[in-house]
Write a structure and sequence with these properties.
homodimer; 229 residues; mainly alpha; Methane Monooxygenase Hydroxylase, Chain G, domain 1; 6 helices; phosphate transport (chains A, B); PhoU_dom (chains A, B); PhoU (chains A, B); transport (chains A, B)
Chain lengths: 229, 229
Amino acid sequence: MNDHIVKSYDSELKRLDGEIKRMGEIATAQLDAAVDVFQRRDSQAAMRVVANDEAIDALEHEVSHDVLRLLALRQPMARDLREVYAALRISADIERIGDYAANVAKRSIVLNQTAPVSAGRGLPALAHLANTLVREALAAYTLRDAERAMAVRSRDAELDAQYTGLFRELLTYMAEDPRQITACTHLLFMAKNIERIGDHATNIAENTWFLVHGEQPEGEREKRDLTSQ
Amino acid sequence: MNDHIVKSYDSELKRLDGEIKRMGEIATAQLDAAVDVFQRRDSQAAMRVVANDEAIDALEHEVSHDVLRLLALRQPMARDLREVYAALRISADIERIGDYAANVAKRSIVLNQTAPVSAGRGLPALAHLANTLVREALAAYTLRDAERAMAVRSRDAELDAQYTGLFRELLTYMAEDPRQITACTHLLFMAKNIERIGDHATNIAENTWFLVHGEQPEGEREKRDLTSQ
């Protein structure tokens, strides 16, 4: 095969990799920033977090564009095709993670319009765990390490349990003081967003497994959100 | 080009089309069923709705599998490539719609464990509108009708407004009677699920536009969930 073509194909895959890496860095930074502005009750900074989400959306469009071009011009097969397919899937998951992080920031602005409630204390720890899962999933993807990816799946159950605890706690706050209902409702949705981020980390992990092995990982994912059971 | 290859390629695209049509039919039927079991407070039937979601997940896997095979064996270009890309994206959206419908059914089981609350009266109308958007988006996709697809996007704003009304109504119920807080919280999440279904209908519409025109539709989507602003 022509060396020039091979080299160029590799550089295109690397470009995709770089875009996804960049997306992941922004998305995890966004979640950290969302929690930070929530804790500091800084609406100005929260608006910047919301606006920053555009950078992730733009990168996802770039990935889609590059994937379509790569498929058309290079017609990859087998593992190469899975590389491209995984890039498409994983970029969609990161885009959703970014959306959820931005929504956490957006709701923190609403919360700043009412008196502070102590009910949100559990949120940063939940977000910290979720972001750890996302970083782990992305590290496993970067290293194409299927085993490491699968460890994320089992840790998602931990996040779900922590979310369930926070959910129940928020309900008791609402029952004790009806004036906190609006604030607690937004906190509930913020917690739910963070729980969903864990699901997307699991998706990234499963796509990494598929990329390496060419088949879906065995076994069921742990049950999700236990509050609706 | 070999007639046999062309014919076979067409039949593979038709197969994809058929799978997506089937997915769409199940997902919209699932949402109807979820609302029906919610209204009838029928937990047995709700469990069947939850279990049925597997059929949609299995079809999405089939679509992904067929897409990868088609990309590897047929190496489609231009419009053909966009056909395959759109199938992949749209199947992912339908899968999410199915998840949300199943979650509505799942939460209705939790609701049946407490006394009926009148606060959920607005839910069926919301779901009806969301399902209309999904059916319209799928019809536009089936007909490859980009203009019809774009009409879905503007109607999604209607759904968002209706959701916002229901959200505020549920908050007042909670404030008036703290015993309804748990039930109303589940209703809030059910309403949010349905609002998200509208977003996925819009995604399907936008992918249909892209499939036909080879570029993203112009203009911003209307703002989403107004309750977090």
